[in-house]
Structure formats: C-alpha cells, structure tokens
Write a structure and sequence with these properties.
This protein has 408 residues and is mostly beta strands. Helix content is 5%, strand content 42%. It has 3 helices and 27 strands. Strands 12, 13, 14, 15 and 16 form a 5-stranded antiparallel β-sheet that branches. Strands 1-27-26-25 form a 4-stranded antiparallel β-sheet. A 4-stranded antiparallel β-sheet has the order 2-3-4-5, with no helix packed on it. The longest helix has 11 residues. The two termini are 29 Å apart. The mean pLDDT is 91.
C-alpha cells in the first residue's frame, strides 16, 4: 500500500477529487479548485474544476500537468466534480453549481446566507448540474451542458458520483434533490442516450423522506453489476452513515434501504474485476481518515470485520469524499482530499485567522489551519490482497460533539 500526494499548492484549497483511467492509459484526476482563505469553506465564488494526470499508474503526479477544465464564472460556486470513462473512451465530467454573490443586494430574499468568515454569500437552495465531455483523453472539452432535473426538482439538484453506463449506451446519473418546503431529500436517476449531452427523468431511488421518514440518501453513488442488477449507496443523516439499495430491473425500481453501519461520510461504490464491491467513505471522527469496506457477494451483506482504514492520520474532520477506481495493472486507487498536522505552516496567518474567528464567533481549531495543515488531494494505491490484510482496522469511535462544524 502506498500513499501519494496528487496535488498540493499553498495558494489553493483543493477538495472533492475523482479519478478515471483515460483511453490512452493516463490516470486523470479532477477536483474542486478554489483560492486559499484563512477560514476553510466549501463555498467560493471563484471555484473551478482542476485536472491533473499521471502516466505511470498513479505513482507520480507532475504539478505541471495541472489545468483548469471548467470555470463557471464569477459569483458561481462549484462542488463535487466527478469523472468517468465511457466504453468508447469518452470522458464525462459532472459537477453542480450554485449562486455565490459577492454582495447581498436583496435579489435572493431569505434564500441567501453569509458564508462564515468571508465577504461573500451563498444561495443554498439554487443548485444545478453541468456536464462536460472530452473525446481526446482530456486535452479539450465539450460543454458545459446544463442538466434538466426539473422532473424531480426545479431549483435544487446535486451530484457527487460518476455516471453508470449500461451495455446499450444508456448513461444513468445518480442525483440528490431537496424539497425546501419540507426539508426532506430524495435520490433519483437521470438518463442520457446521447453520451451525456442531454438528460431526462429515469427513476426514483428513494421517495421524499423515505419509509423511515428520518433517513436521507444524500449524494448517491451507483454501480451496475450487469444491465439488470444495480446497487446504490447514499449518505445518511442517522447513525448508520451509509444506506444501500439494490435494483433488479436496470434501476427502474429500487428495494428497501439497508443500513451499513460505517458511521462514514459520503460513500462511493467501485466494482473490481474480481467481483468485489468496494465502499469508500471519509471518517470524520477521531482517528480522522479514509476507509474502505469490501462486500464479496455483490453488496448483499457487509461484514464489519472486513472494514479497513486506509488512513487514520488526518488532523481534523475537513477531509474525505473518497472515490476508488481500478487501474489497468489490477491495483486500486482511492483518491480524496486530506489534511495532516503540518509542522511548517508558512501559509497560515494566525493573527488574521483569529481576527476572523472572533468576528464570527468561530472556534479556531475547527475553522482555521491552527490544528490541521493545508488541504491537498491525496491518493492511496493498494491491492485487494492488501485490503484483506487490513480487515477489521476500521473501528467505530464516539459520536461527534455538537461543536463540530457542518461541512458540505
């Protein structure tokens, strides 16, 4: 097992990374890229999608390959870019945008909120999904195309995970939407038959609020074992952390939710060539880190004895959103954003940071770089044999205190 630094820059706040294998063999990473600020936040009116690549199976990453493949423009926040390679080599990138004005001019009424510790704002109930495509391994990009999710929500749709491709060329996009009148969430699938250029409604993975009326199914991830059998994982706001649902009719209908007690944050599914289903998730409790949990029967059962900690050296909870892919050499690569306890913080201005915290009544260790160092995009390369050796290392820790911040 090997940990690698994929992208780190003292002037940037990179987060929410995703990976794919391009047709030419390059490993391509996209991530949310935003300017460094004294108070960390997942909202910024200057956010964009950065991309880096490796030509040696993820072993080394040249910062000179870093490019910006999509900038939504000023006063637009961007989150959760995800990338996948279609069977014909087309690269598909998805992300969701939201309004982030510099000033509150009254246009958005009570929908607008101030972003902690900054001089800009956020309209959390207005989110829309965009798609980009590349036909030359990421050298150039087509789009963006705005995704029509109005069948499920007219104003608020978000996406985290990659699209799934069926053998007939249909693409299925897992999305989460919010009903702001009730505060409840729903997960759904959109479908494209033209390689991601246009999208329409396909199915609901969960109904509003679900049967239990307390579980959400946020930022879903979907994989296809074959054209009929699909599985979805979602982020729950209850103790389990992760919820699983399966479909036996190409994702048109979905079964009852199955809690998987990971206590993790934002889950992603990967299917290996050995048939193993790998669930990846961030762990935002001590010891902070990245975890993966294999299922050896297509997600029917999840044995806690197999849950594994890839990393437990995070300095605080602002980390995670991992995605795992399989490389052409058979190894697995899990990518994520991370932080560690840096000894040398030449990027950290404590006087300025404490001044902002005082003005906003914030706890410095939770909102500044006082405890945890610079955020960076990291990766862990491992084999299924090494994964088995880590069986049982992902222990569960006590619940978070009420003083912990809420992160997107």
């Amino acid at each position: 097992m090997k940990h690698v630094t994929i992208f780190r820059d003292n002037t940037r706040y990179p987060s929410h990374a995703s990976a794919c294998v391009a047709k030419n063999g390059d490993i391509v990473i996209v991530f949310r890229d935003a300017p460094y600020e004294h108070i960390f936040s997942h909202v910024d009116p200057r956010a964009s999608i950065g991309m880096v690549r490796s030509s040696d199976m993820g072993e080394t990453w040249d910062p000179a390959t870093k490019t910006t493949i999509y900038d939504p423009g000023d006063e637009i926040n961007l989150n959760d870019p995800s990338i996948t390679t279609l069977s014909d080599g087309t690269l598909i990138v998805t992300a969701f945008n939201s309004h982030s004005p510099w000033k509150n001019d009254g246009k958005w009424g009570d929908k607008i909120v101030a972003v902690r510790g900054t001089d800009y704002f956020y309209v959390s109930s207005e989110r829309w999904i965009v798609v980009l495509r590349s036909f030359d391994n990421g050298a150039t990009w087509d789009g963006p195309y705005t995704v029509d999710a109005s069948a499920y929500s007219k104003t608020d749709a978000a996406i985290f995970a990659s699209v799934a491709e069926l053998s007939d060329g249909r693409l299925l996009m897992p999305i989460s939407v919010t009903n702001h009148e009730t505060g409840k969430h729903m997960a759904a699938l959109l479908c494209s038959t033209d390689k991601g250029k246009t999208w329409g409604p396909y199915s609901k993975i969960t109904s509003w609020g679900n049967e239990e009326n307390q579980m959400s199914f946020g930022l879903p991830s979907v994989i296809a074992y074959d054209d009929k059998h699909l599985q979805a994982a979602g982020w729950s706001n209850v103790e389990a952390g992760t919820l699983i649902s399966s479909s036996e009719d190409s994702g048109k209908t979905w079964g009852r939710l199955q809690p998987v007690v990971s206590k993790g944050e934002c889950s992603h599914l990967c299917l290996t060539d050995k048939g193993t289903t790998v669930l990846s998730y961030g762990y935002r409790r001590p010891p902070y880190g990245i975890r993966v949990w294999p299922s050896y029967d297509q997600g029917k059962t999840w044995n806690p004895a197999h849950a594994a900690a890839l990393r437990s050296d995070g300095a605080m909870r602002d980390l995670g959103y991992p995605r795992t892919i399989q490389l052409p050499n058979g190894k697995l690569l899990c990518v994520y954003y991370f932080n560690v306890d840096d000894k040398n913080r030449d990027y950290y201005n404590e006087e300025k940071s404490l001044e902002i915290c005082k003005a906003w009544n914030l706890n410095p260790p939770l909102y500044t770089y006082q405890v945890a160092g610079l955020r960076f995009i990291g990766g862990t390369i491992f084999t299924e044999y090494e994964l088995a050796e880590l069986d049982g290392t992902a222990t569960f820790e006590p619940e978070l205190s009420e003083n912990q911040p809420t992160l997107l």
